[in-house]
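Re-running 3-oxoacyl-[acyl-carrier-protein] reductase to confirm reproducibility after the cluster update. Everything else is unchanged from the original entry.
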Amino acid sequence: MSRSALVTGGSRGIGLAIARELQRGGDAVAVTYRSGEPPEGLLGVHCDITDSAQVDAAFKQVEEEHGPVEVLVANAGITKDQLLALMSEDDFTSVLDTNLTGSFRVAKRAVRGMMRKRSGRIVLVSSVVGLLGSGGQANYAASKAGLVGFARSLARELGSRNITVNVVAPGFIETDMTAALPEERQAEIKKNVPLGRYGSVDEIAKAVGFLASDSAAYITGAVIPVDGGLGMGH
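Result of re-run:
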């Protein structure tokens, strides 16, 4: 049966690949976006996840079109990289407000319908940086590490309602952001990855699709690294 799925930050990159993967599996997929045009063939809902009122309005739109959200992928995120000594308080709090508190907002809204139905899938998109740390990214790393504790707490809260909550932690992925890095920096990054290459957005999407599927019904509170071995042991 087709499920109602929502991917935040799903208009491009990893989020769009996840949305397309869920759509290929037969789900009715909606994506949130903040600017530009929504992707073709998906239900686009304009939403800034730092605004609870916008989150509620987005969910109401999805519920009217597709029914209550049964699969939530919290993917939306931002970076504001800076060395700690130079990082402003706004640089720190705004990244946490989007990446961590934004995931709280959408998860809280999604579980209403999931608890009533006594089933659901929540997947949070973290990062290898949240496990390894990264100089100049204390704000981003803190926000992505926080998702792990958040997910595992929810897994314990919601397990009795047949709702699973898991985390996917991507490593360095082929995106516009990584493509813009100087070649020397790209080579340096790949040298630290045991598989010697960047991952693809589709490889992240496949992992999310698995966690959202019936095949992963007995997996909850897990952190699945998709990072070429970069963060192994964490």
